[in-house]
Design goal:
Strand 6, helix 7 and strand 7 form a beta-alpha-beta unit. The strands form two sheets. Strands 1, 2, 3, 6 and 7 form a five-stranded parallel β-sheet that branches. This protein has seven helices and seven strands. Helix content is 31%, strand content 14%. It has one domain: Rossmann fold. By secondary structure, the protein is α/β, with parallel strands linked by helices. The longest helix has 15 residues.
Length: 232
């Protein structure tokens, strides 16, 4: 990371703190301005393990998945949508602490009895990382792992090749788009282990489900998924 780049820790420490969503200047102990704060839509507990939405608005019914559960603290709308877009596409990595903290707290409240052996994340190809500058899911996973005191492994899931970005496709094409894209790099370490996959945003869930399928194929005992937000 460049020492004096606009997103460097040094510059972030010098500049005044701004709202994650709209860049308005805010006090040091806050993350959102008073105008954006009311537009954070939280997901209430209990939530559906299949879709991650609160059970009162769950559309999933008896849909089967390869993961055991998926959860997130927020719906992807309003201030959360703006904040995650700044983080993901604007390289605002300073906001990752807020999202990781909220993700970890939600996981503890929603699934208090599950203990994980490893945390990993939805991988990107080298080209994707070079184009964006970082893997946002990896950044979140590392910070969630630190909070939960669980080892974050970068040698579990790998992405084999580039595909059309999921957000460019309609829902009917997304499942086929990710089929066969992921593999497990370190297969021995996941046997009979509980694995948590971290991602930034869940839309259809096909990406994390494909990752979970590969982990289960190589004998992971249980696979949970944790995101920052879920699309309504």
């Amino acid at each position: 990371m460049r020492l004096f780049g606009k997103n460097s820790p040094l510059i972030a420490a010098i500049l005044p703190k701004v709202c994650i969503a709209c860049d308005k200047r805010i006090p040091e102990n806050e993350e959102f301005c008073s105008g954006c704060y009311p537009y954070m839509k939280r997901i209430s507990i209990p939530a559906c393990d299949v879709c991650g939405k609160s059970k009162k608005r769950c559309p999933s019914h008896d849909k089967s998945t390869n993961y055991n559960f998926i959860c997130a603290p927020f719906y992807y709308r309003g201030a959360i949508r703006a904040g995650l877009r700044h983080f993901k596409f604007g390289n605002r990595q300073n906001s990752a602490d807020f999202f990781a903290d909220q993700m970890a707290k939600y996981l503890i409240k929603s699934h208090p009895d599950i203990k994980f052996d490893y945390i990993t994340y939805v991988p990107m190809t080298e080209k994707q990382i070079k184009d964006r500058g970082f893997n946002q899911s990896q950044v979140l996973a590392q910070r969630v792992a630190k909070i939960l005191n669980v080892e974050c492994r970068s040698d579990i899931l790998i992405k084999l090749y580039n595909i059309e970005p999921q957000h460019n496709l309609s829902a009917m094409y997304r499942k086929g788009n990710v089929a066969g894209v992921f593999d497990v790099e370190n297969r021995e370490i996941i046997k009979n282990k509980n694995i948590l996959i971290v991602d930034d945003i869940k839309t259809t869930g096909y990406t994390v489900d494909e990752c979970a399928k590969m982990l289960k194929q190589y004998d992971a005992a249980m696979v949970g998924c944790l995101c920052a937000a879920i699309v309504i």
